[in-house]
Specification:
The complex is a heterodimer of chains A (285) and B (296). Chain A is mostly helical. Chain A contains 10 helices and 2 strands. In chain A, strands 1-2 form a two-stranded antiparallel sheet. With 296 residues, chain B is an all-alpha fold. The chains are: A mainly alpha (285), B mainly alpha (296).
Chain lengths: 285, 296
């Protein structure tokens, strides 16, 4: 336990249980358990166990080297002829459905667990909300988009290198993802997030532990006024951080879910540009 | 002493301050006073030249027609010299514009780094922001300068233009056997997505504990208080591990730097050291389901 932890555990014991939150209010070592912890643990262990078993011992691409199997092994989704049926045939992607189901339950339980713990600590729910954004990404790519296109085969294979192969092929399947404006916006936000993280981390480290020399928040403000003409402030930077990261995931969801459903060719998507009303009738020489 | 002189000049400059009312309640509203200084002026004029040269190059391509310029802006491109030109200076229309624009862009970034450095020191901060920025500068240099010089051709560098830079990214990956198989690219993407994850975790944690004052990070690092305690316990109870108010910013800087540095190494090794990352993956035996393609 941390030096100050006992007080907060006592405080958490006094928070009344409500529905599924606050049930099984016990700690195992440093971990809080709780109802949703049990769910996450059960389905997490089950899903991961099946994944390792399949990838290490069943996948036809396996070698005799467990490390190589881990990197290149995979569980492939059901073939297109299965459609959206729930197949129990192990040769037709049953284990993919099984692991995707376990993972979905685990991620959801993990989010509920964060809500549970936030509630016990009497803090806001921003952490589970942010986790919900990335959970929505899993649901969009593995469940919503396959359902919209009527086939589980649209999901990605569960494996380290295989999911990269899938991603690479996915980009070219819709002509080229570099022409996908939502992809461009998502990447911009990803790089923007990294930039914000770098600036914030470096800024705090540059001021921390210089308090004995009289450095305060005011020095940081003046540095940013000098440097950029604007200092967003201690609270503002964390709002920016939250929204940059969450939006990068949400915009990326759009770039996936629109491909194959609404847009088949991201280059042809731009055809409207040349015929935009503003210059449609302009006499170019 | 130097700090005091600086403070005086700062007070004089506060006359130029403006306030953005629409940001009230969201973030700080004060805009300015911005500092120019010698390095700022050099960076500004250097960037102005870069933009001017690019605009001339684009303008020639559309016959200086403003409507055509607007319509074709996304596809207008300044290309580097052809491979046959090697590292020589090229005529303006055959890559010379690109060479000049790139020269002034590179100078801008160097001046900008020095400018951040001098401003950080003048305000009593350690120069961590310019050090972090130099990681991005290294990635820029790897792509635009070091790699082209190593393979003896400016043609290897990205062109200037919205579509041009995306197509270059695509072609560079394919030319060296698909960057998805480049292990340094993998690490760089890990850093990029990991940075976004850490940013979300940190931003959300601090917002969740605003009521307890966890956002006063510089004070919290010296002596942590209730907000930081609750933030730390959240992650300790969720995943059995927590950073401190200080170490989360070390994680942040480390992950963001990893993204740029690993990416730069991945670019530099492409070509001279590893001409085909797919073949590398074949030799490493990590290609899945496509082993037939691995047979030479």
């Amino acid at each position: 336990m941390l030096s100050f932890e006992a007080k907060y555990r006592r405080e958490a014991m006094d928070v009344p249980a409500r529905a599924s939150f606050g049930l099984l209010k016990i700690w195992i070592g440093r971990f809080y358990l709780g109802f949703w912890g049990v769910v996450a643990l059960a389905f997490g262990v089950l899903g991961s166990g099946v994944w390792f078993w399949q990838v290490l011992f069943v996948d036809p691409n396996r070698t005799n080297n467990p490390l190589l199997n881990f990197i290149r092994g995979q569980i492939v989704p059901p073939p297109p002829d299965v459609g959206l049926a729930i197949t129990f045939d192990p040769n037709k992607g049953f284990w993919w459905l099984f692991v995707v189901f376990c993972a979905t339950v685990t991620f959801f339980a993990w989010m509920m667990r964060q809500i549970d713990i936030s509630r016990l600590l009497k803090i806001g729910y921003q952490v589970p909300i942010a986790f919900g954004a990335v959970f929505s990404s899993w649901v969009t790519i593995q469940i919503v988009r396959p359902i919209l296109l009527g086939s589980w085969s649209e999901g990605f294979p569960l494996g380290v290198i295989p999911h990269l192969d899938w991603l690479s092929a996915f980009g070219y399947r819709y002509y080229n993802f570099f022409y996908n404006p939502f992809h461009a916006l998502g990447i911009t936000l990803l790089f923007g997030s990294t930039l914000v993280l770098s600036l914030h981390g470096a800024t705090i480290l540059s001021a921390a532990r210089k308090k004995s020399e009289g450095v305060t928040e005011e020095n940081v403000n003046r540095f940013y006024w000098d440097f950029l003409g604007y200092s967003i402030g201690e609270i503002g930077i964390h709002r920016l951080a939250f929204w940059a990261a969450v939006l990068s995931v949400l915009v990326s969801n759009l770039c996936f879910v629109l491909s194959g459903t609404v847009v088949q060719d991201w280059s042809a998507f731009w055809d409207f540009w040349d015929y935009a009303p503003f210059w449609k009738n302009f006499p170019f020489n | 002493m130097a700090t005091e002189v600086y403070r005086e000049s700062f007070e004089r400059r506060t006359k130029t301050v403006r306030y953005l009312r629409f940001l009230e309640g969201l973030a700080d509203t004060q805009v300015g006073p911005i500092y120019l200084g010698m390095w700022g002026a050099l960076a500004f004029f250097s960037y102005l030249l870069c933009v001017f040269i690019t605009a001339i190059g684009f303008g020639e391509q559309v016959g200086y027609n403003p409507i055509r310029f607007l319509r074709e802006l996304p596809v207008l491109t300044l290309y580097p010299p052809p491979p046959s030109a090697g590292l020589r200076m090229a005529p303006l229309q055959e890559g010379g514009y690109w060479q000049l624009a790139t020269l002034f862009l590179s100078l801008t970034l160097v001046f900008w780094t020095i400018r951040i450095w001098t401003r950080a020191v003048a305000n009593g901060l350690r120069p961590m922001v310019p050090i972090a920025f130099s990681a991005a500068l290294f990635l820029y240099a790897a792509i635009y300068i070091i790699h082209p010089i190593w393979v003896n051709s400016w043609n290897e560098a990205p062109p200037h233009g919205l579509r041009g830079i995306l197509l270059w990214t695509n072609h560079f990956s394919v030319k060296y056997g698909n960057f998805y198989y480049n292990p340094f690219h993998m690490v760089s993407i890990f850093g990029l997505l990991g940075s976004t994850l850490i940013l979300a975790m940190h931003g959300a944690t601090i917002l969740a504990t605003l009521a307890y004052g966890a956002h006063r990070e510089i004070d919290e690092i010296e002596k942590s208080d209730e907000g930081t305690h609750r933030a730390q316990l959240l992650w300790r109870w969720v995943m059995g591990f927590n950073a401190t108010a200080y170490s989360i910013h070390q994680w942040a800087l480390g992950f963001a730097t990893l993204t740029a540095v690993a990416g730069a190494i991945g670019v530099l090794l492409s070509g001279p050291v590893e001409p085909d990352w797919f073949q590398w993956a074949c030799r490493a035996d990590i290609v899945s389901g496509l082993q037939k393609a691995c047979v030479p």
